[in-house]
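Handoff note, outgoing to incoming analyst
You'll be picking up this chain. Sequence as last confirmed:
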Amino acid sequence: MNLHRLDKYAKSLIKVAAGRIRSSFATDLLIETKSEANDLVTNIDKETEQFFIHHIKRDYPDHRILGEEGFGDDIHDLDGYVWILDPIDGTMNFIHQKTNFAISLGIFKDGVGILGYIYRVMDDDLISATLDEGAFINDIPIPTVKQLNLEQSIIGINASWVVPNKYMEHEGMVKLLQKVRGTRSYGSAAIEISYVVTGKLDAYMSMRLSPWDIAGGMIIAKEVGAIVTNLANEPVNLLGQGTFLIAKPGLHKELITNYIHLK
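Most recent structure output, in case you need it:
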């Protein structure tokens, strides 16, 4: 398959989908809850995923789709071509703020990420990567990430991991916050990953992410030299939910070694 043709096709779908999302602000949203009160989905999330699936199945019928809203295929392996899609990552932000949300898409071939995209819808910024060809923001090359010490770093972290919780020893997080230059939390994994790969953040971690939250960002991260693992310093599982860490190389090692202690 011609990778550049597939890249052009994916970008065209993303741009059209983003236009549809922006146009939706003139209409009333239908908001539902999923697993809990803060796990929200709208009619626009669903319609956007269905838009992608309709076109992909029409134009690439042998490709499979894993989407957050469940309209794609029942995926238990990454054989062949698999698209992993979050139509709106940051749905709560989309509902409440009308900003800080993104389309996240990763395309894999036999388990290898070949094309990755994060589209910051309201900023009109498309971060993309092609396997072994680098990463780009709006078609401008993104440089390789630079080494940075902890005291100079800004880290994306949810405040709930700094208080007693069932996942992580919070004392390590308290020590981390006392040493870093600053922390941020944007409410969208795709947005925070995009900030790491473009240099606005130096690391980002989360305790509960799904494949569609991170698939596109993982492919981009590889092309700029950022390190991606789970919080146990193991490869990320793209077939289930788990922990997640993306960071600049030396910073990644320091976080894993000195501050992140899972229960």
